[in-house]
Design a protein that fits this description.
By secondary structure, the protein is α/β, with parallel strands linked by helices. Helices cover 36% and strands 20% of the residues. A ten-stranded mixed β-sheet has the order 3-2-1-4-5-6-10-15-14-16, with helices on both faces. A three-stranded mixed β-sheet has the order 7-9-11. The longest helix is centred in the N-terminal third of the chain and has 20 residues.
Length: 337
């Protein structure tokens, strides 16, 4: 799929960007070019120690901000596929710095679309978040806007051979700023801060997120918003898995947080289809034949009123399954204490 292709990842030094890089270089050693586009030179320097250009001939490190349209246009020169992972993502920081969040998450999305349409890019996959579904915080609202921009971009491409799609998933296990590394750092203090004892979240591994992006690159017809079928966890089960001997101190939810996360609302159910491994939310009007799509992917419309939330999920992580996943995916020498 990616053989002899040129790929660019915005926000490529983030957790998912690095896992994508690792997977692409392993599975497609004949990839033509892999451009890591981000604004943090220190993170690029650190990533280049792990993936040096001297060892991986295809890789390039490109300093740039998604707010800078001209820089994006230059970076997109000769690129086939774009994976848009750059974002301001910390909920409480976005609440305190709303204009900065808007500039990056909405203005940056517009710039990626404009740069892609002005180049020979043929596929764009944008990363979304569960917080974009029925958002109550600014981060979620900006990502919902970003989702809408990428989906609508399929309507303005004219005859250009380009497809825009979106992938939406829950908390990526072990990603920067997520709860597992936070609890791991806190457990030596003997106290774990718990926002709310009833809180739940969706759970997906970094590799699961990578698989979704690659699925969208390979299968998207343009305009889809893909949602994975993944388990939920209870925050207290995560705390018990990591540090069963620690005290739990309830500190209350932070500004903009939800008790339970949502990925599909009942209002989305009218255009949501079950693809087997994933759900897909389709635009109300597509620029391809819906019946052909349903036949191609054996897509089945979900029941009216269907919703998909972390609190009402049918699949749950347990204390033991969380311990197993932490050891498998994050810390090979992990032991609860």
């Amino acid at each position: 799929m990616l053989s002899n292709k040129s790929i660019l990842i915005t926000g490529g030094t983030g957790s998912l960007g690095k896992e994508l890089t690792k997977t692409i270089l392993q599975k497609w050693p004949d990839v033509k070019r892999l451009v890591i586009y981000s604004r943090d030179e220190q993170k690029q320097y650190q990533m280049a120690q792990e993936f040096p250009e001297s060892k991986y001939a295809a890789i390039r490190y490109f300093i740039g901000d998604v707010r800078d349209l001209e820089r994006l246009k230059r970076a997109f020169n000769g690129i086939d596929y774009v994976i848009h992972a750059a974002a301001m993502k910390h909920v409480h920081i976005a609440e305190y710095n709303p204009d900065e969040c808007v500039k990056t998450n909405i203005g940056g999305a517009e710039n990626v679309i404009k740069a892609a349409l002005s180049s020979n890019v043929t596929k764009v996959v944008a990363l979304s978040t569960d917080k974009a579904c029925a958002p109550i915080n600014l981060y979620g609202a900006t990502k919902l806007t970003s989702d809408k921009l990428f989906i609508a971009a399929n309507n303005i491409k004219g005859r250009q051979d380009i497809r825009f799609s979106v992938v939406r998933y829950g908390n990526v296990m072990g990603s920067n700023g997520s709860v597992i590394p936070y609890f791991m750092a806190k457990r030596d203090e003997g106290v774990l801060p718990i926002t709310d004892p009833t809180m739940t979240r969706f759970n997906i591994s970094l590799q699961g997120g990578v698989d979704m992006v690659l699925h969208a690159l390979d299968q998207a017809w343009g305009g889809e918003l893909f949602v994975p079928k993944i388990p939920s966890y209870r925050i207290l089960d995560v705390a018990q898995a990591i540090a069963p001997n620690c005290e739990h101190r309830v500190i209350g939810i932070r500004p903009g947080e939800k008790i339970h996360e949502e990925m599909i609302t009942a209002s989305d159910s009218f255009t949501t289809y079950d693809l087997g491994k994933y759900y897909v939310i389709l635009p109300q009007v597509t620029n391809w034949n819906l019946e052909d799509y349903k036949k191609e992917f054996n897509a089945r419309l979900v029941p009216q009123g269907f919703s998909y939330t972390s609190g009402d999920n049918t699949e749950w992580e347990t204390v033991e399954s969380m311990r197993s996943q932490i050891k498998e995916h994050l810390y090979s020498d992990f032991q609860p204490k």
